């Protein structure tokens, strides 16, 4: 084969590859920082506002700027295959030149768990699928759980073991830090669970603070540990004893008067027979 024939063959192969190649889809997503509001008493300093979020968008276009046919974008929470629930709604719009498609994700009254990353998978006729990412961001969102129940304070008897869990949500994730308020001592760093063994009134009773930070800011929340006083059981015990004594006195007095009434009736009966 001559050099001219080889060149011709290579040219034909290149043209064939170009003729059979397809443009790829490109999907890009937006980031949005969620606005937080001041928490009420017993809540963290900042909490997620129960607003209607209509902020996340993913856009799709073809790499060769060709028109899109039947474009569609599917949304999911990153790392999950579950279908988004009825709290979410979607809308899409195709540009006039049909070269760009944008999908908007809306969240009605979002919860802490919804502040996370989302994947948007784009597809169109005769085009391979492509993925993008959109993010809802916020400073850490903090709550406490005791035995799986959300609480802002917890009671304990002296000698009891207590585990308090600091749940840190938000995006990016933050690492929790525990402090004892009365002396400012750090008693847990990087761990969600704070375990206090054999608690006592003088040492452990008081507020505990869990804080966390990320690129969006810092947040903190407090929980109060109510350790009972060692003599706290005396009050209810005394009340019970007093109640028992009062009931006993009432019973004795009642029986005494019933006895006297019975004797009086017997005496009157004897007097009637004598007459």
Task: Describe this protein with a few key phrases.
disulfide bond, five-stranded mixed beta sheet, seven-stranded mixed beta sheet, Immunoglobulin-like, 275 residues, transmembrane, Ig_sub2, alpha+beta, elongated, 3 helices, transmembrane helix
What can you tell me about this protein's structure?
This protein has helices spanning 3-20, 201-204, 234-274; strands spanning 25-29, 31-33, 36-38, 46-48, 53-62, 72-77, 88-94, 100-107, 117-124, 127-146, 149-150, 153-156, 162-171, 177-180, 185-189, 193-196, 206-214, 217-227. With 275 residues, the protein is of the alpha+beta class. The strands form four sheets. Strands 2, 6, 9, 10, 11, 13 and 16 form a seven-stranded mixed β-sheet that branches. It has a five-stranded mixed β-sheet with strand order 12-18-17-14-15, with no helix packed on it. The relative contact order is 0.12.
Gap between N and C termini: 159 Å
Derived structural class? alpha+beta
Question: How many domains, in number, for the residues?
Answer: 2
Mean pLDDT: 82
DSSP helix fraction: 10-25%
Q: Class of the largest domain, according to the CATH hierarchy?
A: Mainly Beta
CATH superfamily descriptor of the largest domain = Immunoglobulins
